[in-house]
Amino acid sequence: MVELLHAVGIEHVAINPGATFRGLHDSLVNYAGTRGPELVLTTHEEIAVALAHGYAKAKGTPMAAVVHDIVGLQHASMAIFNAFCDHVPILVLGATGPMDTTRRRPWIDWIHTALVQGTQVRDYVKLDDQPASVGAIPEAFLRAWRLARTEPQGPVYLCLDAALQEEALERPVPLPDVARFQPATPPHADPRAIDDAARRLAEARYPVIVVENLGRRPGVAAPLCRLAELLAAPLVDLAVEYQGRPSVPGNHPLDMSGARDEVVREADLILALDVSNFLGALGTTDRSTREVRLLNERTRVISISLEDYAARSWAQTFQSLIPVDLPIAADAALALPALVLAVEDRLRHDRGAAERRARAECIAARHGAISAEWQAAVRLERSSKPVTPAVLAAEVWQVIKDEDWILANGTGKGWARRLWDWQPERACGGSGGAGLGYGLPAALGVTLAHRGSGKLCVNLQADGDLLYVVSGLYTAAHHRLPLLTVMFNNRTYGNDEEHQEAVAKTRGRPVENKVVGIRIDDPAPDFARIAQGFGVHAEGPLDSAEAVGPALRRALRVVKDEGRPALVDVITRP
Questions:
Q1: CATH architecture of the domain with range 382-571
Q2: Using CB atoms within 10 A as the burial measure, which of 108, 253, 401, 540 is most buried?
Q3: 406-to-251, 314, 345, 438, 477 alpha-carbon distances in Å
Q4: pLDDT (tens digit per residue) in 152-176
Q5: pTM score above 0.85
């Protein structure tokens, strides 16, 4: 197993100790020695897998997470589901008690052995496998490794029998040439479909480009913006709202992500690139009744994605079934440059250039007005106590704007995108599956991937999310991961407060009761003291804008000069 990990280039293994993989653990420590891979100690399997999730997004290649038999796999299952929804490749290595019942210890080996263990996560991994002999391990490993990285990517689970791990080898196990087991190239679009899409876009009166997860592939922003400029088409990025991977620069004059409803209502044609949540893109929801209404029932839709290849029956991550007029099953990032060329060719002798210029100017003016509104909100809320999310995002930006920053997690309720010089390649996106406990460990994985690069990794951390995995702060301190964490601490599960308020109004209940069973304020956790207890530099709680800037600068010095993690806890308005 160690030689296989070396052969495929895995540099890090996140681990929470467990007796079922003591054989593998010993090999990683004593056989691998200083060659690595480096063991990253976590205190919970959800942290281990979420850390690998963040690492893979930042590094562009998977790392491994090792989880302890049934109990560890159940702990890890939420993080595995997040990675499945986010199409992120992770090699999850598991273990089981001996399948040979004559080799099981009483009690523990029995209750920690399943038939077969992969059924626990089979519905949200690309592959689960449990080789029955040492000789079968290389094939199982390389198949899992290849499928994890085949588009659409995702986590895989490889389970190793504890007795198998501890079996004495009678002869060397031959390892194949791993270079011959690479993933297949992603599917390209049918050239005829690309030509048809280009024709429809060129002829459209008001085309709109909507993206959701396109940013999972590097380098997409340039051709995406080029296509929008050719067509004078508004760009709408759903990534922040629906935890996808950002792909639209916030300062682009055609960025209308802040006015989605407005441009979708106007559109006669929508180009959806790597979008799964069509109803979220094209509709509006009444929180009280759950009724969803399409913003524009007349618009035509072109879709380019691989989402149909990722559909599973158990978890309906495939979203609502919306009519699509030209569905193209292809890697949208690969199809985009070809589509740009086809549109350029279509518009070379087109007579609508003046109309498109006028439309682009109108969109740019609206973009500027929206940006001005956001800046005005910060000025109006500057003196608020507690600090508003807008003001806190603005304060963080003032401290980091001259740094080579990476937003490892969070968006500050969307205000980072609105107020920062938003560059999608610097933002890692959300969990994908909306499972709490993702933020801190994923940010640690991003920091691990960038360790030694000089980049400043920033985590805009929600308090409710952190409470699921607060012991991730130990991993941060133990491995000296230089992460700057800023707590957006509203002392509540804010999203659920909104839901309870909607139900209260619908049923005529007292709205003030919306906080019961939701607020985290009696007592309020002291995140600074908690972090200090794990060995992390921390300050707070702070509740004024005047106090935030100096505390952030002190924390920044710790991260940059000492190479240690730091946390600043800021109380924000619910």
A1: 3-Layer(aba) Sandwich (3.40)
A2: 540
A3: 17, 35, 37, 17, 19
A4: 999 999 999 999 999 999 999 999 9
A5: yes
